[in-house]
Every structure is written in C-alpha cells, then in structure tokens.
Amino acid sequence: MTPQTKSLSLRLALPFVVAAAMSLSACATDPQKTGSVSRGGEPRVEQMTISQLNAEVRKWGAKYERNPKDKQTGLTYGALLRMTGRDDQALAVMRKMVIHHPTDNQVLSAYGKALAATGNLTEALDAVKRAQRPDHPDWRLLSAQGAILDQMDQPEQARIHYRKALDIVPDEPTVLSNLGMSYLLGNDLPSAETYLRKASQQRNADVRVRQNLALVVGLQGRFEEAERIASADLPPDQARANIAYLRDMLSQQNAWNLLNEQDEKKTN
Fold this sequence. Notes:
This protein is globular. It is built from 13 helices and no strands. Helix content is 71%, strand content 0%. By secondary structure, the chain is mainly alpha-helical.
C-alpha cells in the first residue's frame, strides 16, 4: 500500500461496516440462524432491525423518564441511543447518570464511550482513566482506552492498552478485534488479518468480528474469500452486495491514484 493511499482503509472501513450492519437486520428474526436470538427468545440487540431498535429505545426511554436515577435503566437507554445514532442524546443521558453515580465504574465507562462517540476524545479518555482502578484493572476499560487512543491517532499507546487487556483475558475476541482494527487503521493489513482471524476463531466471537475480518481480507483483494467469511452471518446475496461495494470502492481508489500519477507526470 502506497503513501498516497494511507487513509484508504479508514475511508473504506466506515461505509463498509455500516453496509454490513444494515444487512444484519435480515438475520434478526431468522430462527435458523445460530445466535440470532437471546435466551428469552428475542433477537439480540446487535442483530435487531432499525424498527425493533427504535421500539426498544421508546420502551427504555419511558422507563428512564419514570426513574432517571436508576443505573441499569440509564446505561441501557444510553447504549440504545448510541446504537441508533443519537449520540448527543446518549451523552446527555450519561451526563445525568454521572451526577447520580459519580464513582461508579460502569457509569464512568459508558460516559467515556458516549463522549468518544461525540468526538470529545480528551474528556472521554479522562472519564475512562477515572473509572480504572490501578490495583485491580478492568480489561474492558483498558480496551476502551485503547479505542479512544486509536481515534486520537496514538496507535502505539492504544496497542499497549489492548495488550494489557489481553494479559488479563487472553484471546478475548473483542480486544483482539480492536487490536486488529488498530492495525487496519494504520494500513498494516497482514497484522490486522492475523488478529482478526484469531478473534474470529474464538467460541464467543460475534458477527462484528467476522465482518471486520471480511473487510480486511477484501481490502487485500481476496474478494471470494471475503465473501465466504461474510456469508457465515449474512444471506449470500447481501454478502455479495457488501463485497461488491468494497470492490467498487477499491476500483475508484485505484482510478484516482492513476489520475494523480498522470497529473504528477505532466507537472514534472
């Protein structure tokens, strides 16, 4: 990958992951799809359709209005708001939760995530640091801190935190996935694939890990393999559509690179 395409992975990753997430809604009510429902028989939150998520937002919003000090209600409501793109509202909810629970690590962690989602990265990092206990570190907070540092363009520091988290929970797929995506954003695709493949092989890996792996494999031009990986969770036609989208984006990038090279030759 050339210096001219340094930001390619970042610019491709976001729309591709969004497209994959939208496609997942078709799996939400499929009783034959392994892992598509929770123990209670309802779709898992990460696999709900937009209408189902909005219904959950309304349900938990009503609970929050009745009791805005309840910790679990606030955490759930805030998380659902972030999942549906209402980041500013989620941050407002979490600010109130911090007032009611100023020393609670779960609340401070969720507050940090809400801050990061709205671009308040310095505040987010501070919130996560305050939630962490040096004498008994929480691997989830270490991973969250790594993700924030990645967004602050501090990949080396981010990876230190991911590896500290892995010292506590070896082979945890969410941390391995975060580490893999860190290398993806740094355009080290082979390293990204190594960690994402290891993450996808863990028994408790979720669909997002596998879709990230499909993205990294596709970015390396192995489209058929990427489609097979994506098809593990998506209907075949939607997996094909996602990979076709990725292939098209790569083709456009190559076309722009060719035009840039031609322009450079003309000016020299």
